[in-house]
Design goal:
It is a single chain. By secondary structure, the protein is an alpha/beta fold. The longest helix is centred in the last third of the chain and has 24 residues. The model has no long low-confidence stretch (mean pLDDT 94).
Length: 402
């Protein structure tokens, strides 16, 4: 079964085209990444298996154009891997927010789309982008089944003490205001794969997964189940991110609204699209730019980098306390997979509990890599996330039942 997996992030579109035989046997036909959507110049990197990768730099103002670039790349006469779109049997999508409507993946229909739309307020940077992906596929492949996999599903195992906010209970009853989390597909995948890689019994383990990218979250996984996570009612909560502010004093919101005469929607835009790396540095939302600018002596960029470390350390430390210890810490996603300094600096803060990093392994990390020293009391690994494989497996299962 040939499955196209679409993963629309807040500023990117990742995609994979897989020929799935079963959950463990499959061929990757092509993969790629559209990134820096909304910045002055974006990039599409298309990697067809067995062919030369193609990289194009061009303005990509929105996800609609990003999706068009993906579809065009797959059927390109020279660099494509499909003769036509008719070769695609099913399409799977990553959806950030399904609230408590969904505890697992679902076949796309009008009711599912309506519920995803209802959750847009909970994930204002993501759900609208996901819907664009669904509609773009529907226009090109109207008869092909589409399946959605929700980031929130893995976090449904949290207890009320972790997901409830100390607001009037009626807001939970009326508006479902609670912690939902995000990146669940990634946290699920790397915790399961990491446990196997490290030789841990997942059903008797304490793992902290750090999904660090343009959007970031940290999750406490005990015995294979999420017990707490840093993102909240929306993906805004938690640490500093590319364009999101993360945790702030809630009273700052009405204070700035009054001072700047902002509407609620305008304030939402400030916190979700104008803050984080971008807002604090006044330069860029991309960590690669922060590293470059910091090396050039830019003080604001240095503060951004230091604050990212600071925020991760606080979250990891809190979850160690919550689980009464930790067996393994895992880094994943764009920054977590590619920035050895972030991994090293975070882990240095836990030297008091016996965490030791193998510097050579950390700097050379690629694929699944154990970066902790042999005598470290806590295992630390870099595990590349593969949300697309999780989505493809669910898509194959659900599409096969139609």
């Amino acid at each position: 079964m040939i499955i196209l997996v679409i993963n629309c992030g807040s500023s990117s579109v990742k995609y994979q085209l897989l020929d799935m035989k079963n959950d463990e046997v499959y061929d990757l036909l092509a993969k790629g990444l559209v990134e820096k959507i909304g910045l002055p110049e974006g990039t599409i990197t298309h990697k067809p298996t067995g062919k030369t990768p193609v990289i194009k730099n061009l303005p990509i103002p929105d996800h609609k154009l990003g999706m068009k670039l993906v579809l065009d790349a797959l059927v390109d006469p020279e660099h494509g891997v499909l003769k036509s779109f008719d070769d695609i049997d099913a399409v799977g999508h990553r959806i950030v927010q399904g609230a408590d409507y969904f505890s697992g993946s679902a076949l796309v229909n009008d009711d599912v789309i309506r519920k995803i739309e209802m959750c847009c307020d909970f994930a204002p940077l993501h759900n609208p982008a996901h819907l664009l992906g669904i509609h773009a596929i529907s226009a090109v492949l109207p008869k092909v089944p589409q399946v959605v996999t929700f980031d929130t599903a893995f976090h449904q195992t949290m207890e009320p003490v972790a997901y409830m906010y100390a607001l009037p209970y009626e807001y939970y009853e009326k508006y479902r205001v609670r912690r939902y989390g995000a990146h669940g597909t990634s946290h699920q995948y790397v915790s399961q794969r990491g446990a196997k890689f490290a030789g841990l019994d997942l059903s008797n383990s304490r793992i902290i997964t750090c999904h660090i990218g343009n959007g970031s979250s940290v999750t406490a996984v005990r015995n294979g189940r999420c017990i707490d996570t840093s993102m909240g009612f929306t993906p805004l909560e938690g640490m500093i991110m590319g364009t999101r502010c993360g945790n702030i004093d809630a009273n700052i919101v009405p204070y700035i609204m009054k001072k700047e005469n902002l509407t609620p929607d305008e304030m939402t835009t400030v916190m979700n699209k104008k803050s984080g790396f971008l807002g604090l540095s006044c330069e860029s939302s991309d960590m690669r730019d922060m590293i470059r600018l910091s090396a050039e002596g830019n003080e604001k960029a240095r503060i951004v980098f230091d604050k990212l470390i600071h925020d991760i350390v606080k979250l990891v430390g809190g979850y160690i306390a919550e689980m009464n210890g930790v067996d393994m810490i895992i880094f994943t996603a764009g920054i977590g997979e590619n920035n050895a300094e972030v991994r090293r600096r975070v882990c240095e803060q836990f030297s008091y509990m016996g965490v030791k990093i193998d510097d050579a392994a950390n700097k050379a990390a690629h694929d699944d890599t154990m970066i902790s020293a042999p005598d470290s009391k806590v295992k630390v690994a870099m595990i590349p996330t593969d949300e697309e494989l999780v989505i493809a497996r669910d898509t194959m299962r659900i599409a096969s039942e139609i």
